[in-house]
Amino acid sequence: MKKYFQFEELGTNYRREIIGGITTFLAMAYILALNPLILTLADVKDLPDAMRMDYGSVFVATALAAAVGSFIMGFVARYPIGLAPGMGLNAFFAYTVILTYHIPWQTGLTGVFFSGVIFIILSLTGIRETIINAIPVQLKYAVSAGIGFFVTFVGLKNAGIVVASKSTFITLGDFTDGNVLLAIIGIVITVILVARKAKAGIFYGMVITAIIGMIFGLVEVPKAIVSAIPSVAPTFGVALDPVIHDPSSLFNVKFLVVVLTFLFVDFFDTAGTLMAVANQAGLVKDDKLPRAGRALMADALGTTVGSIFGTSTTTAYVESTAGVAAGAKSGFTAVVVGIMFLLALFFSPLLSVVTTAVTTPALVIVGVMMASSLRLIKWDEFEIAVPAFLTMFMMPMGYSIASGIAVGFIFYPITMLLAGRRKEVHPLMYVLFFVFLAYFIWVR
């Protein structure tokens, strides 16, 4: 096992990998609660039951899709990256596909399935890997730093430390709120642990924050440890029903837009996450990602299998950087993440302690660590600085990794051409220029 996962070469061991895997899982665990709530449209009142997915079934599908995707990432690609149904794409599935387009959730799952199959084809042909390796190293640094800003912003927003404002768009939250204070205390504790070079400081910071929350009644104390696993029957295999029984329902513009949106956003979200995590873990060699094709295949298979179980697009999670920060470096970490998701099926009551206040400290510290790639960007070269800056800035501002990549990659060939450096631009970057323009004009 040690030899297969290259423990000696990577300078890691079982303890680091297990702690890294648990840390990544805890940072991702919120998806087990949020994904069912979003896909069942729990916050929408007076909705016919036929338009809602089954909560218990979606919970099981979420855990199984995450486990399968993470196992493939760990065993095949050997990257310390956890996968699960992605935030953002699940909201698009629920509020746009079902509520706005009035497409049945069954057909929506078919759209996810088709996007997964296209992912597999693109991965087998090597197109996705070629695109990632064609991205200039300066923009890879920008993507890594931008994701750092993005995850920090997500953490602060989820904890209520920053909130929406009508006058200034964004402002500081209510610091008298117990959960906000808990998140701030957690950040302070985690900063102290990491600054003192404590091994697995991020993981212990989350544990201490959860304990403090339970002591003061801010985090619910689990009433049970083990619970029965709900049936996945209501959603299992439903994605294939329209293909078999009513294929004519798939031949329309709305369904095409659904497939293209899932395809585009997942493609570049995963590419950005993969580059960022690999860069942080020191796995990038000669400005390229070893086994990138396998990692992308893990994402493609995870999406396809997840759609059959009954959930929206499965994607690589940027929260994996929390596990890397805790010491993870090999694919064994992803295997641990997969095991944790399977165990979560039996121990779901314990997930009540993993609140946004508990995960925020990890996301903030990870953001700090990922921002270190800023020093590697050539800021004195304006044609590099502009697309790099826009890539980073638009991720938190557009609340999307894919949007940040799109904006930066549109400007890159323009500034390089104007600076007389067109020969340094890979031909694929010109192709991506038009792809991203089309995305903003017709899809976005």
From TrEMBL:
One of its GO terms (cellular component) is plasma membrane. The keyword Translocase does not apply. Keywords: Cell membrane, Membrane, Transmembrane, Transmembrane helix, Transport. One of its GO terms (molecular function) is purine nucleobase transmembrane transporter activity. Its main location: membrane. It is a multi-pass membrane protein. The keyword Membrane applies. It is found in: Cell membrane. Belongs to the nucleobase:cation symporter-2 (NCS2) (TC 2.A.40) family. Azg-like subfamily. This is Guanine permease. It comes from Rummeliibacillus stabekisii.
